[in-house]
Design goal:
The protein contains four helices and six strands; from the N terminus they run ααααββββββ.
Length: 177
């Protein structure tokens, strides 16, 4: 039976971790012009909410449903999502339940660095999410925490918010306390 570590299963929920795949080259954007830090952080939070909504629409048996997640990611996060979804689809896995956006704490704003504009700590409640293999057995480790903290970097992108998730790393931060 094909089992994944907690970090890889959580990748479905938050597309965490790096991948050995090289991301597709993307054009270097000039970056959105936010009038203030508050505006940039609001756009990042809106981006993350849209990303979680897209995750909740994923049907692992239908790769077309992955496209909405890809639209809210770029670089390393996009490559990781593509790899994870492709593997889970190939293994015949199923996801049930929905993730809930559970917290957003702004941490950095870099207006002069278009590939690393906003960084925030986020919390995602995955307590209602289960992932099962082709035989119907859960692949979610019993040790998985119900609330998953991550440090997320948002980069300039051609999206409704002018941002996309470029990296997401699991953390032990207080974002979920």
């Amino acid at each position: 039976m094909f089992r994944r570590s907690a970090a890889v299963v959580v990748a479905l929920a938050v597309t965490l971790g790096a991948t050995a795949c090289q991301p597709e080259p993307t054009p270097t954007p000039t970056g959105p012009a936010f009038a203030s830090e508050d505006e940039a952080f609001a756009a990042a939070e809106e981006t993350y909410r849209a990303y979680v909504d897209a995750l909740n629409q994923v049907d692992l048996s239908d790769p077309e449903t992955f496209e909405a997640v890809y639209a809210w990611t770029t670089g390393e996060a996009n490559a990781g999502a593509r790899k994870s979804f492709s593997e889970m689809h190939a293994e015949g896995w199923t996801v049930s339940g929905v993730s809930a956006f559970d917290g957003f704490t702004p941490s950095a704003f870099s207006p002069s660095t278009p590939t690393s504009i906003v960084t925030a700590e986020v919390c995602l409640d995955v307590s209602n999410v289960d992932v099962t293999d082709a035989s119907g057995q859960s692949v979610v480790p019993e040790s998985r925490k119900d609330r998953q903290p991550a440090i997320v970097t948002f980069a300039a992108a051609d999206s409704a918010t002018s941002l996309a998730i470029s990296t997401s790393e699991a953390t032990e931060s207080a974002a979920c306390s």
